[in-house]
Write a structure and sequence with these properties.
- The protein is α/β, with parallel strands linked by helices.
- It contains eight helices and four strands, in the order βααβααααβαβα.
- Helix 7 links the parallel strand 3 and strand 4.
- Helix 1 crosses helix 2 and helix 1 runs parallel beside helix 3.
- The radius of gyration is 15 Å and the shape is globular.
- The model has no long low-confidence stretch (mean pLDDT 93).
Length: 159
């Protein structure tokens, strides 16, 4: 039986290795992420992209080193002209602000490569019911499958 595939977006990696946050909601998300990473992720074929590596490599050098180490061994989804075209289509149709352009690329990579899931804590532009519905419509017109957009908490039960 094939294992389901998952594209891991940058926010998950950040929550995985960051110091515990004083905000209770963020701290809970961090704990859930660590539990998902240890208990559920081994049941998936996990992927990242050059966009993830770029994002997690920013900021404090020591923290960036930890983030990169946590995903550096994972295979990268290939970026090409079709992914770029798809991301630009998403930007135009999904109401993603320009400063959050990379979110469209995460979704385009996961969609184009046929991922089963895209896991993220970005509930504004990625892991939301509104985006899922609109992405389904766009991808249906494009003839490609849409991954389930979800948080690690929602994906915990899949393992």
């Amino acid at each position: 039986m094939n294992r389901p595939s998952v594209y891991i977006e940058s926010s998950v990696v950040s929550y995985l290795v960051s110091r515990p946050n004083r905000d209770l909601v963020v701290a809970a998300h961090q704990q859930i992420t660590r539990e998902w990473w240890d208990a559920a992720l081994p049941g998936f074929d996990a992927y990242v992209s050059v966009f993830v590596l770029d994002e997690v490599g920013r900021g404090d050098p020591e923290a960036a080193k930890l983030r990169i180490a946590s995903v550096g061994h994972l295979p990268l989804l290939e970026f090409g002209p079709e992914v770029d075209r798809l991301a630009k289509l998403y930007l135009a149709k999904l109401n993603i602000p320009g400063e959050c352009e990379v979110d469209a690329y995460h979704m385009a990579l996961a969609s184009w490569h046929g991922m089963d899931y895209l896991v993220s804590w970005n509930c504004s532009h990625i892991a939301s019911a509104r985006v899922q519905r609109q992405l389904d419509l766009i991808n249906s017109q494009e003839g490609i499958r849409t991954p389930v957009l979800c948080t690690p908490e929602e994906l915990m039960e899949e393992s």
